[in-house]
Fold these 2 entries.
Entry 1:
Amino acid sequence: MGIRGGKPCHHELKAQKSEQQSDMNFISDNQAGAHPAVLAAISDAASGLAEGYGEDALTAAAESAVRDVFETDCAVFFVTTGTAANALAMSALCPPWGAIYCHEGAHIQNDENTAVELYTGGARMVGIAGDGGKPDVALMRAHMEIATVHGVHNAKPGAISLSNVTESGTVYRPEEVASYRQLADEFQLNLHMDGARFANAVVASGANPADITWRAGVDCLSFGLTKNGGIATEAVVMFNQALAEDFAYRRKRAGHLWSKQRFLAAQWLALLENDLWLDNARHANAMARELSMGFNAHDAINLPWSVDANELFPVIPEALRGRLRDAGLVFYDWPQEADMTRFVTHFGTDPAELARAVEVIATCQ
């Protein structure tokens, strides 16, 4: 998946620049622009003077708005990239001698370079297999048991990280998250959620934000809105207040405390107001469902995973992929599986563009 700060990852770079201008571009929600409400809020925040380094009124209001979303007194730290959110979060959740357990295809494992290892001071990532982007609980437990038996000769189990939405486009329900919390309690671990597409997960699950995070046992959430209409709109949300101790120093040391933080806060206020963040995600998810119907209607295309949110991973034969591209569809090949591709919709996906894409899929044989 693409890096949350807006840069395409190495997979996305395969698309030609000319292709990226296509009306039927489904490369990534990283390529979507900013919501007009976000731009207006930034413009409004630009006038006058305000305290620096997060001491301004907009930051206080935005932090309060995030707490209202989760219906609890959590600690909120704004940063500018998802990579920073994940890496800094893990630095507070796992010691340098610890192990972080996640799905083997997780973004935190495969697309953050070595940021997590850097900020934790050397914690080890342990990828666990599992269907649909969700690590198998029994297999994860087996890995932890082996590590525990081996004592100081192995990395000490330190944290679990779940991606919601997963790297397969699937979504966790509260009871699924709770099963990892139970495992975390067995081994006295912290539970992290990578929520780069958290809004899409909330809409898809039908649960409220509290139910799929702290009420299900999540200690810390990397809450992303950059893919959902923001420009630099990420936050580390600590539900376990003990883990928030000294986190402000971690953020400052990493260079993610903006002197003019009101411009980050303004984005949060714009997107959280009147549940715009959920409306944006609802549109993106609806566009993905419509696109999935086009794929399901084609005899030569298979969708191996459920389309829960705004990502689709159709398996398309090579010759057909070429014809789809020739007809103007823009997407990229997913390297983990043979003939697998990825399509992503977003808050700005045009329904007319989507309808044209479905028509192209139907006519290409």
Entry 2:
Amino acid sequence: MVIGIPKEIKSDEYRVAVTPAGTEMLVRAGHQVIIEQGAGLGSGFTDDYYEKAGAKVIARAEDVWASAEMILKVKEPTPREWPRMRKSQVIFTYFHFAASEELTRAVIDSGAVAIAYETVELANGQLPLLTPMSEIAGRMSVQEGAKYLERPQGGLGVLLGGVPGVLPGKVLILGGGVVGTNAAKVAAGLGARVGIMDINLDRLRYLDDVMPANVHTIFSTRYAIRKQIEDADVIIGAVLIPGAKAPSLITEEDLKLMRPGTVIVDVAVDQGGCVETIRPTTHKDPVYTVDGVIHYGVANMPGGVPRSSTLALTNATLPYAVALASKGWRRACATDPALKAGLNVVGGKVTYAGVAEAFGLTCTSADDVLRGPAVV
């Protein structure tokens, strides 16, 4: 199979979909890898590393898209890339369709086979291709929150860890999954007072057992959220519903309960966000203020640490990429339920319920697609 790796062109995105080591594995498996010139530079991988691994370096992105049977990316195709998608082409990347109807309809119209990293799901409910980026984003959320909490950045001027005789800052985390757990670890390590909220009592019991004494678990209700945000210094949105839009847990009206200079870091922004007033921002222009509350909405937080992120991501995605290339998408998905769960759009049909529900579209069962007439 011809596998194409275009350079990421989303603002401030420095990751690359495959490392030179991953390229070598794909080539040894019998596949041809073509990569756009300079695609790995943001992560510290020069073109000669890919050439030594057996890849062919291509100057123009258009030629990579036109030649590849499968495209490996990190972020969803941008509007500039939509015309390059074509019928039967497999695109394996983070899509987060539920946050963008325009993207969803563009992929439907293209006839491509869209397999989303974020909905590949194991039998135990784990999301193996989302987990490494969630770990990074969760850890980054605290350091970004701490930075914008500083007074020169417009924040409250609170040191999260405090000092002897001064109460530590308070970090409130909405969601006890991978993002929330990693955020709590870092916040606790800094010495902050940490509250982590969730609606899953079993998860809260687990977190209560494994977290240090300065992390407190709180069952999430509207009343509890409103009370907790009143004195929180940093609020981290860490709620995820796989493949669907994140629920709005903090409304615009709730901002009036917060102190001016409070910082919100909504890691769920690429799924629509769990704060009503959040909107996607970039690393170049990461924050804005609503009612005195600082909002950080960078949708590709791990892109700010691309070396670590690329290595962590490809450790997880590469086995699935090899399976797709070696077996073809249809057989690979038919034999691996986790990968089948990654099917979001196939040949103009939406195959993931969360995406269909977000925009009132008809959902076709992935099993029906796999059993039906060949799309490729």
